[in-house]
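tool_call: predict_structure(chain=1)
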Amino acid sequence: MSLVYKITYPNGKIYVGQDVTDSIGYFGSPRSQYIAMDFTPEERRSFTITRDILWESATATRQEVNAMEKHYIVTLRANDPSIGYNRWPKFKNHNSL
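tool_result:
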C-alpha cells in the first residue's frame, strides 16, 4: 500500500510526505532544524504530532505517488514556510507581486 500523509505539529504547521511501505511508525523526513527553530526547549520536552492519511492506493506507480504527494504539498501549501515544513517544490508567494 502506498500513501500520502499529513503530519501536524503542535504549532499547527504541517508536513506532507509519502510512504510506499505502509509503515505505521513512519513519520516522514522533514528537516529537523526547521522544526527545532519553532519550539522552545521547554516545548520540546513533551511533543505530540498527528499523522493523517490523505490518499492511499494499492496499485499506484511510483510516479503516481510522487504526483499525489506534490499535489497535496501545493494544495495545502505545506511548502509555504509560514504553514509547513516541506521545502519542495519551492513555494512561490504570488501575493507579494
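agent: The CA atoms of residues 3 and 17 lie 8 Å apart. Proceeding to next step.
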